[in-house]
Amino acid sequence: MFKSHSKKRILILPGGGATGVTTVRVLEALEEKLGRPLSQLFDEIWAASVGSMMAAYLTEPRFGTSVRSAQQVGQLIRESFANPWSAWHCLDRLQSEIHPDLRLSDTVIPLKILTAKVKNFPKRESPVFGRFETQAIGLCSETSGDLSLVQAVRASCAVYPVMPAQRLRLDPQDLDGIVCIDSGCRVCTEPTLDPTRVFFEDLNEQASHSETPIQLFFISNGWARWSIQIQNSSIEVLNFDLDLSPRFQSLGPSQLGKRICSNLIGMGFTSISALDSWAKDAIYGKNWEVFQQMVRELRPVS
């Protein structure tokens, strides 16, 4: 696919349930300003949870190498999280939209999807208060190219126990496979909704052996915000912060209040119009300069 830029550009889409509506609004605005599909503007996408849903929709080859526009993806995400019931069935909708035979290695540009491998998956122990642990792992074409794209996304979005855990066979010799759930599930280990934490180490290693500059375009929300210190001068971060954290404090500033509020928003208990409004406030308000910088960096060289 034609690329008119000399830098390696990576789009990073963190998780956060229905807050994905705000993330996709930023993508729509970028595509509208630049007049090209995102798959022509970026070389790779890293994604977690709802971000992996967006990434799959954006990079599924539909007719030859054509892909959905950000606006079409935005409509799918808004319908998927219109209310708690549709949010519960968002993966069924994805499975009806994405071709079942499409593999992770078939996408228009490479995807790296974050999920969490469950250690000693329990059969009877309480899934909420049990003691099983998780380990964040990445799914990509290099290590799991034959894996179905739908399976990879399901593994990244499996909010256990609301949604069933996914058993993946990444090694043909491993008949039992591994059990995966959403990396944001709070089970013993720290929840991880930022895919950068898992994929950045390899990227840092690549950057030290390459003369090609790398740009990371990260869209922060109240669930996952940029936190890595960049030491390599060839790696640049453009962080668009939707700053949803204050929205999570409507039940009070306590940690418990914020956690309950963020989960209610993530499960679809906030209207789509409100989520859209929050995103527009960030794009055309306090973060307008950051948005304009992203547009300038992504604008094709004539």
Plain-language structure description:
This protein has helices at residues 20-34, 38-41, 50-59, 70-80, 84-88, 90-97, 141-144, 149-157, 196-208, 255-266, 272-286, 288-298; strands at residues 8-13, 44-48, 111-119, 133-140, 166-168, 178-181, 214-220, 235-241. Helix 1 runs antiparallel to helix 4 (70-80) and helix 1 (20-34) crosses helix 11. The relative contact order is 0.18. The model has no long low-confidence stretch (mean pLDDT 86). It is α/β, with parallel strands linked by helices and 302 residues long. 39% of the residues lie in helices and 16% in strands.
Q: Strand content of the residues, in percent?
A: 15-25%
Structural class: alpha/beta
Q: What count of helical segments does DSSP give? A: 12
- How does the major sheet shape up? 8 strands, mixed
Low-confidence segments, given as residue ranges, are none
Global mean pLDDT:
86
From the alpha carbons, calculate the radius of gyration and give it in angstroms: 18 Å
Number of separate strands? 8
Globular, elongated, flat, extended or rod-shaped: what is the shape? Answer: globular
H and E order: EHHEHHHHEEHHEEHEEHHH
* CA-CA gap between termini: 17 Å
Helix content: 25-40%
